[in-house]
Write a structure and sequence with these properties.
2 copies of one chain form a homodimer. The longest helix of chain A is centred in the C-terminal third of the chain and has 17 residues. In chain A, helix 1 crosses helix 2, helix 5 crosses helix 13 and helix 10 packs across helix 11. By secondary structure, chain A is an alpha/beta fold. Chain A is elongated. Chain A has 3 domains: about 45 residues, lambda repressor-like DNA-binding domains (434 Repressor (Amino-terminal Domain), Orthogonal Bundle), CATH 1.10.260.40; about 120 residues, Response regulator (Rossmann fold, 3-Layer(aba) Sandwich); about 130 residues, 3-Layer(aba) Sandwich (Rossmann fold), CATH 3.40.50. In chain A, the strands form 2 sheets. Chain A has a 6-stranded parallel beta sheet, sandwiched between helices. In chain A, strands 7-6-8-9-10-12 form a 6-stranded mixed beta sheet, with helices on both faces. Chain A contains 13 helices and 12 strands. The structure holds a DNA duplex (30 and 30 nucleotides).
DNA sequence: GCCTCCTTCTAGAACGTTCTAGGCCAGGGA
DNA sequence: TCCCTGGCCTAGAACGTTCTAGAAGGAGGC
């Protein structure tokens, strides 16, 4: 019978009492720290097992000034953020950190998400494609290390890890031109994180090839893509289209096919993100892939470097993208 | 100059010192508890503001035995889980609880996700479509209240909140029959959470209408749906298809259209989940909608009831689904 | 004057861990 | 004999909160 009620969560003191040692020694055993004999270790471990002891990470963190906890803010809507979160878990584990997740939802904005993490005593924050203004991010960075992923921020206070989106568009345009497609249009992502950079890359590459750099309004969703495709269908059809992201590209594809236009026969289409959608057999979309493993490893690495006080050379880390060619691009029929 | 280094996180004692009161009183003010004069409140609040004080939720939770923290395990891949998480945040906030998120990723299984939440001192767990065997869930439920969402579990130990999936299939089949479609096939979800129930519902409804209850193998993804459609195209085409979920339905749709079959002219298609995909103008899929707001409100409510010791009548709460009719179902051409 | 009651406040003990400082004992060198 | 040294262990103080018990001071009733 435990002293303070039957359903009390077992504590280290309970383990120690049962094993007949001090709590300090029990702590040593549980942490696998040096300073206990083999027999005692065994005894303490068995006691812990028997009463179902689980360390209370909050008490643990309270005591040690370091929490080894990285806060992550992600958008619950974005499939790509899901991939990034997976990568972050793996990267954090490799360097002995834990993750605290906080989601941005339609009813919970970034401020709320960040506030939650701050009171959880995270040592640093990793923000996935944040929408907060630069000033707000800089304010935050005055409190603790902040790493922004997949968006570029013009501030000396925050670290940025992102894909070389302009280069990704170069790859896409070069690929299309090599296929003999010279009338290329870009379907834009508006004010979404990364859109400006991708637009810029498109324009640079088009100019380099001596092409007219035509850009039409698009967006993040399939419906935005469909609308853009309808706009394109109203005029003379280009021979190739680069699209802000895969979801939008899907809308473009669908609308083109509905209008009876052959893809890639008449029009080639390139997406961005290499999401699961792009990889589906029924879609099989050529797309610019972001290197998730690299992005997440660098993001965690940068956060840890800041915490350890390791000198850091550049604020911005840029990861090269990769073009994944599938069946929506080919030479004209 | 703070005593213990310049970048120490400000604590309640700092606030109290600056305001010239005891920490206990500062605590009272920060918690908005009764027992402080208006002028003192104002003074303490200003001091907190000035030094940028943020309560340390871990210390707070350590002290009070209640953590008011609900652990949520979700799959980072599932768009539907994203919707549920959004709803859970809102529902938890309404009853004064916080959420701790723990993701299941390709490299992080449910055991890991749950273990993390347990050491975070969550009072109860909400599991979204868990894959763990019933026995493991029951073990867990012996430690703390467990609510499983969107899957049915045959165990008296855990609470379940789910959609009446069988009824959803009744709605779908009734709708198709009312449209004059009597040759209906179900594309199955295999061992996915909810699949068995949906299959059962389909069979019941078909039998009720005196139809042959034909079921073909499908799955969760677009590719599974495409494969199922190819199987259907190999024989005489049914006049209607119900599909395990929207993603799979999308594959079915795509493959049917590629084969030149008119939807809904020749074949009507009904999906399940009413996901964002189904709502897209380019897809516009008739689908069975799950009531996310209701599911999440009930899940949180049930967890809280267990914690408060409120007597609970049934272990399983079943929420009625709703049929959303769009353009993939109509009378035969 | 004394008692009670209220409001406003404070000291100090929790909470469950880790860490610091030190105790005790055996072994070994002088 | 004495003093180190090293291995194993413990007491007790942190960590930043909240909570309990109670003090101080005034108002009011007798």
């Amino acid at each position: 019978m435990t002293p303070a009620g039957p359903d009390r969560r077992p504590t280290l003191a309970d383990v120690a009492a049962r094993a007949g040692v001090s709590t300090a020694l029990a702590s040593i055993v549980m942490r696998e720290a040096p300073g206990a004999s083999a027999t005692t270790r065994e005894r303490v471990r068995r006691a812990a097992e028997e009463i179902g002891y689980r360390p209370d990470s909050r008490a643990r963190l309270l005591r040690s000034s370091r929490s080894r906890l990285l806060g992550v803010v992600f958008g619950v809507q974005h499939a790509f953020h899901g991939d990034l979160v997976s990568g972050l878990y793996a990267a954090a584990e490799r360097v002995g950190y834990e993750l605290a997740l906080s989601a941005v939802t339609p009813g919970r904005d970034e401020r709320r998400a960040v506030a939650g993490l701050l009171s959880d005593r995270c040592e640093a924050l990793v923000l996935l494609g944040p929408h907060s203004p630069t000033a707000a991010l800089a304010d935050l960075a005055a409190r603790l290390p902040v790493v922004v992923v997949a968006r570029s921020v013009r501030s000396a206070a925050v670290d940025v890890v992102r894909t070389a989106d302009a280069e990704g568009m170069h790859l896409a345009v070069d690929h299309l031109v090599a296929l003999g497609r010279r009338d290329v249009v870009h379907v834009d992502g508006g004010r979404a994180p990364g859109a400006a950079e991708r637009r810029r890359g498109f324009r640079e590459a088009a100019r380099r090839h001596g092409l007219e750099a035509r850009v039409v309004a698009g967006g993040l969703t399939e419906d935005d893509g469909a609308a853009a495709a309808r706009a394109l269908l109203a005029g003379p059809l280009p021979t190739a289209v680069t699209v802000f992201n895969d979801r939008c590209a899907l809308g473009v594809l669908d609308e083109l096919r509905r209008a009876g236009r052959a893809v890639p026969g008449e029009v080639a289409v390139v997406g961005y993100d290499d999401s699961r959608i792009a990889r589906l057999a029924t879609v099989d979309l050529t797309s610019v892939a972001q290197d998730v493993a690299q992005l997440t490893t660098l993001a965690v690495g940068r956060a840890v470097a800041r915490l350890d006080g390791t000198p850091v050379e550049r604020r911005e880390l840029v990861v090269p993208p990769r073009l994944v060619v599938r069946s929506t691009t080919a030479s004209p029929r």
